[in-house]
């Protein structure tokens, strides 16, 4: 019993000592709070330039938001498989406003925001950045924050396939607002959902693969291909483009679908048959490198002309980090970074002008201009461009549920787009040029050598995909012979 | 709320004291604010903060209930609400047939089916898990959580990565995006019902036996109680509560995908329960409100905190808040209320009542058992001299 009593006394003493520690902790908390409040205040004023009334007192250049401001929200991913490209997305859209609308960057990192700038005399106001993580759930909650809390009138985004489907569905509940896709590339977003106020000025995953299967069959002699694809809407759409092409010529495929976000691909690599003519990789984001590394570790380097891939295999950030595994691969993408066209040069100089300094907030090579041919940068840039063009055409008129802007956007074309002209079809989906390139090394640095172009690729793929055909999936489209407009007609490009 | 109820009873014994009156005042004020919320707050706050806090609170209260009265730290609650949501999403009508089986059932049949499936799965799973305690119970429920996540991610017939979209809702809820009021009141009503149900259950012989099992399973077994059965039934009751949160979450989001029930969400619900305070059921809603507010303001303001902090670091902020709360008030936000009340009592010259001592005793449980330590509730009992 005495032991118990002693124990109790000791405990009580301990408890009495506590308030001191708590006081210290409370003081620490108060300090943290002050510091966060200070930073928060600073950030909100610098982020949004023309900021809300509460923080506008500290804002240097722009005071309260003018009533005629055009309120734009930019929705991207800051987490998940594509989180690394967060600032490439924001930078792409804002670089356009900086280069063509007189906006000024608030710092070397795009998410620092922009100040000033007008479209048709109306000040540009970036109300916020959506920070999703490639899931539909987060994209939905972030787009709702931008629209319902930050009162965005126009949303540029999202980034990823299933996010696009969710946001396009959401846009139907906000018929008086405008949604311009960032770079998400699922087919359903425009072909099935067909929201009247959702516009996509970039191709979908299948369009970005157009011609790759045909070239692999005819030029590389593939007859049986392994297709490894992320198990979600974009991975399926991207692979669907290759499969439609390759099977149209008579090829056969084995499909493997690891979940998006896989880091250990060994069990999927073991599913790859020992004998195949070629492998098409539709593994994206951080998965591309993991898959390539793990494949070469377990099976050895790819033999010449046996690897092909989608946009991710040719993305500058992946090329900058890639080792020899990628070299010699055939890549389908809507950008040809080795072009010497004036349109591309103007675009790249706009990026350099807007964000000249390298920053660690961007993936390698670390500058926005270095990521120019990344679909993340260029598609957000083109979204801003289309918005500027349409808004200018209607003199910034957002009245009447933005009816004038909606009509203008549907008719907007980008004939001078950096990597080939862009027009919209009746579902407000872009018709784009696609490119087929080799991954090369020039002086040790991997690069892109474009060899073919497929002009004017439509989402319908020559009637392969319609609103009533099954959505791309693990087993869709079925592998069968069909006629495609570009079969055997890819145009050779002689550059350099 | 229950703090004031307990306190109120003490008040009847000892005469009305200031803290009691303040407690009642707070309760009435909270009730008025909750009822008039649609008039007070913007549509966005009502939907994304309050409604979200209410359904997250229901999910978290199932964690609190299992821990506080059953001594079980369950990481399976999110998986279970996911099962309810996916089960409902598959059988009801989805516009444009976007994912799932789309069997075209009515929304209410879907609700019943979703809850039933979740409870049945929980009964089966509880039968397996109920024989393990402490960290082992936690690990086995974590396994269920991941199993469910990967199941729905992989089985594209039932869900797939993109999940099920445009799930139809009962007519009176309408479209929660354009008019959040009906869903808010539904979530509020469900929260009150769940709270009353759980308060009732813990006072029944079943609830008392459950608490006995929490404190000393061997002794209860020797008294003739079927310990695994009690724990299984408690787990199923927790699943019933969680499945209500699942149904509400689907109506709230209009869709469900594996991304809604991933590991991050599993941990979020545990954090909500701990932030709010595991000593009292109402702490769950308090924690959920804090979580929803931090979520909103962190996303709103982190994008420009320089290079070292980007909006992807929301978890860092919630983690810091979690640390501070656990450090300052181990029994969560609800514990701060107790402290203030004690403080107010001392200031106003009210001697610490037996009730205060009782409250301390209640708080003592989570502190001694410890959520993060391996010493499960089984070891916290049976230590008398």
CATH topology of the largest domain in chain A: Rossmann fold
Largest sheet of chain A: 9 strands, mixed
Structural class based on helices, strands and sheet pairing of chain A = alpha/beta
Tell me the greatest interface.
Answer: A-B, 59 and 49 residues
Give the count of helical stretches of chain B.
16
Q: How many strands in all of chain B?
A: 0
- Taken from the alpha-carbon principal axes, the silhouette of chain A is globular
How many strand segments of chain A? 17
Structural class of chain B: mainly alpha
Mean pLDDT of chain B: 84
The biggest sheet of chain B, with number of strands, parallel, antiparallel or mixed sense and barrel status, is: none
SS summary, helix count of chain A = 15
Q: How many structural domains does the protein architecture of chain A include?
A: 2
Kindly, what is the distance between the CA atoms of the first and last residues of chain B, rounded to a whole number of angstroms?
36 Å
Write down the Rg of chain B. Answer: 21 Å
The poorly predicted ranges of chain B are 1-12, 352-385
Low-pLDDT segments, ≥5 res of chain A: 14-20, 29-63
Topology order of chain B in helix (H) and strand (E) letters:
HHHHHHHHHHHHHHHH
CATH architecture of the largest domain in chain A: 3-Layer(aba) Sandwich
- The fraction of residues assigned to DSSP E strands of chain B is under 5%
- Overall mean pLDDT of chain A stands at 85
Characterization of this structure:
The complex is a heterodimer of chains A (496) and B (385). Chain A has 496 residues and is of the alpha/beta class. Chain A is built from 15 helices and 17 strands. In chain A, strand 11 (278-282), helix 10 and strand 12 (307-309) form a beta-alpha-beta unit. In chain A, helix 3 packs across helix 13, helix 3 (86-100) packs parallel to helix 14 (375-393) and helix 4 crosses helix 5. Chain B has helices at residues 2-14, 18-40, 43-70, 77-91, 107-129, 134-154, 181-201, 205-215, 217-222, 227-253, 263-276, 283-301, 314-328, 332-347, 354-369, 377-380. Helix content of chain B is 71%, strand content 0%. Chain B has a domain at 55-261. Chain B has 385 residues and is an all-alpha fold. At the A-B interface, helix 1, strand 5, helix 4 and helix 5 of A face helix 3, helix 6, helix 12 and helix 13 of B.
């Amino acid at each position: 019993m005495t032991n118990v009593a002693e124990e109790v006394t000791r405990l009580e003493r301990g408890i009495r000592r506590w308030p001191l520690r708590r006081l210290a902790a409370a003081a620490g908390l108060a300090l943290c709070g002050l510091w966060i409040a200070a930073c928060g205040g600073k950030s909100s004023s610098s982020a949004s330039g023309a900021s809300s009334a509460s923080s506008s007192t500290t804002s240097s250049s722009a005071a309260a938001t003018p009533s005629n401001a055009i309120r734009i929200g930019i929705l991207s991913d800051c987490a998940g498989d594509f989180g690394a490209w967060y600032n490439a997305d924001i930078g792409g859209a804002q670089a356009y406003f900086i280069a063509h609308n007189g906006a000024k960057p608030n710092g070397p990192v795009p998410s620092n925001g922009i100040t000033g700038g007008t479209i048709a005399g109306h000040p540009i106001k970036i109300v916020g950045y959506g920070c999703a993580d490639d899931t539909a759930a987060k994209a939905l909650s972030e787009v709702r924050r931008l629209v319902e809390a930050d009162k965005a009138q126009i949303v540029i985004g999202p980034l990823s396939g299933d996010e696009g489907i969710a946001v396009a569905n959401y846009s139907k509940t906000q018929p008086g607002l405008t949604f311009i896709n960032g770079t998400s590339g699922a087919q359903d977003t425009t072909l099935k959902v067909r929201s009247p106020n959702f516009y996509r000025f970039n191709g979908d995953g299948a369009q970005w693969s157009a011609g790759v299967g045909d070239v692999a069959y005819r030029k590389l002699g593939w007859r049986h291909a392994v297709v490894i694809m992320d198990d979600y809407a974009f991975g399926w759409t991207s692979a669907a483009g290759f499969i439609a092409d390759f099977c149209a010529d008579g090829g056969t495929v084995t499909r493997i679908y690891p979940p998006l976000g896989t880091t250990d691909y060994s069990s999927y690599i073991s599913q790859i048959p020992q004998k195949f003519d070629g492998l098409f990789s539709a593994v994206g984001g951080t998965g591309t490198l993991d898959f390539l590394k793990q494949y070469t570790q377990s099976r050895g380097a790819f033999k010449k002309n046996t690897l092909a891939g989608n946009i991710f295999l040719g993305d500058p950030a992946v090329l900058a980090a890639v080792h020899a595994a990628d070299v010699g691969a055939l890549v389908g993408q809507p950008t040809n970074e080795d072009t010497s066209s004036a349109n591309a040069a103007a675009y790249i100089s706009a990026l350099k002008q807007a964000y000249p300094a390298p920053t660690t907030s961007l993936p390698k090579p670390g500058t926005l201009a270095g990521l120019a041919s990344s679909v993340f940068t260029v598609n957000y840039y083109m979204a801003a461009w289309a918005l500027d063009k349409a808004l200018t055409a209607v003199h910034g008129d957002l009245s009447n549920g933005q009816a004038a802007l909606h009509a203008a956007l549907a008719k907007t074309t980008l004939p001078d787009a950096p990597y080939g002209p862009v027009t919209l079809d009746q579902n407000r989906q872009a018709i784009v040029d696609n490119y087929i390139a080799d991954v090369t090394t020039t002086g040790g640095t991997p690069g892109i050598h474009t060899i073919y172009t497929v002009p004017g690729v439509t989402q319908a793929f020559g009637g392969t995909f319609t609103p009533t055909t099954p959505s791309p999936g693990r087993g869709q489209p079925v592998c069968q012979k069909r006629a495609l407009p570009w079969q055997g007609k890819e145009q050779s490009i002689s550059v350099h | 709320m229950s703090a004031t109820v307990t306190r109120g009873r003490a008040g009847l014994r000892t005469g009305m004291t200031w803290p009691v009156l303040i407690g009642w005042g707070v309760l009435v004020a909270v009730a008025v604010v909750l009822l008039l919320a649609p008039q007070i707050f913007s549509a966005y706050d009502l939907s994304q903060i309050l409604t979200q806090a209410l359904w997250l609170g229901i999910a978290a209260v199932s964690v609190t209930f299992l821990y506080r009265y059953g001594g079980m730290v369950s990481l399976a609650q999110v998986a279970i609400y996911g099962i309810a949501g996916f089960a409902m999403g598959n059988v009801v009508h989805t516009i444009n047939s976007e994912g799932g089986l789309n069997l075209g059932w009515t929304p209410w049949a879907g609700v019943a089916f979703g809850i039933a499936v979740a409870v049945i799965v929980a009964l089966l799973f509880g039968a397996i898990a109920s024989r393990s305690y402490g960290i082992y119970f936690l690990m086995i429920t974590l396994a269920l959580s991941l199993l469910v996540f990967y199941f729905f991610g992989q089985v594209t017939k039932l869900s797939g990565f993109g999940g099920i979209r445009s799930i139809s809702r009962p007519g009176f809820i309408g479209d929660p995006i354009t008019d959040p009021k009906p869903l808010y009141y539904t979530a509020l009503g469900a929260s009150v019902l769940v709270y009353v149900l759980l308060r009732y259950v813990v006072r029944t012989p079943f609830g008392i036996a459950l608490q006995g099992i929490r404190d000393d399973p061997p002794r209860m077994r020797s008294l003739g109680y079927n310990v695994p059965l009690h724990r299984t039934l408690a787990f199923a009751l927790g699943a019933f509560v969680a499945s209500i949160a699942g149904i509400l979450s689907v109506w709230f989001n209009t869709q469900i995908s594996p991304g809604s029930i991933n590991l991050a969400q599993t941990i979020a619900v545990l954090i909500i329960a701990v932030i709010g305070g595991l000593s009292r059921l109402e702490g769950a809603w308090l924690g959920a409100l804090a979580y929803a507010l931090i979520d909103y303001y962190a996303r709103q303001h982190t994008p420009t905190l320089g290079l070292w902090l980007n909006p992807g670091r929301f978890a860092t902020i919630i983690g810091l808040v979690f640390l501070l709360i656990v450090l300052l008030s181990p029994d969560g936000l609800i514990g701060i209320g107790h402290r203030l009340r004690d403080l107010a009592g001392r200031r106003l010259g009210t001697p610490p009542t037996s009730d205060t001592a009782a409250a301390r005793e209640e708080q003592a449980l989570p502190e001694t058992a410890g959520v993060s330590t391996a010493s499960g509730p089984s070891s916290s009992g049976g230590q008398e001299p």
